[in-house]
Design a protein that fits this description.
Elements: H1 2-23, E1 29-34, H2 42-57, E2 62-67, H3 76-85, E3 90-91, H4 95-98, H5 106-110, H6 119-129
Parallel strand pairs: 1-2, 1-3
Length: 133
């Protein structure tokens, strides 16, 4: 009977030690983002800004590892397939490639060109939206 109490006490202490040891660790969620654009491309610079913002807003709990210039694959199609199987969390692909996987995404390829009545109107709207960048 004394041995059983001793074993239960040791097991309980072991579980508590493991729980407290794990609770002290700061876990960081790392997301992988890959794209085919060169690192000097403006969109690529925007992705870097996204990663910095996410890291700051999450208080260091989340991080995006960026793989530009086709480091993890040679085509945007491969990146979408990597998303589907779970080996990649984020990607930046063109709407033309996305259309092959999601036909309703064709609206971004074809319909948005009729959104603005003139080029000056488009520049005025985009100028206001992106002036803080």
């Amino acid at each position: 009977m004394k041995n059983i109490k001793y074993i239960i006490m040791v097991l309980s202490l072991s579980v508590l030690i493991i729980l407290f040891a794990r609770s002290g660790k700061k876990t960081i969620k790392v997301l992988k983002l890959a794209h085919v654009l060169d690192a000097s491309h403006p969109v690529s610079k925007g992705i870097v800004r996204l990663a910095e913002t996410l890291h700051n807003v999450s208080g260091g709990q989340m991080r995006i590892d960026i793989y530009p210039a086709g480091q993890l694959g040679s085509s945007e199609r491969e990146y979408i397939e990597s998303l589907q199987i779970g080996s990649l969390e984020l990607t930046k692909v063109s709407s033309a490639v996305l259309e092959n996987f999601v036909p309703s995404a064709a609206v971004f390829q074809h319909a948005l060109c009729f959104l603005f009545r003139s080029a000056p109107m488009e520049c005025a709207i985009y100028g206001k939206w992106f002036s803080g960048w």
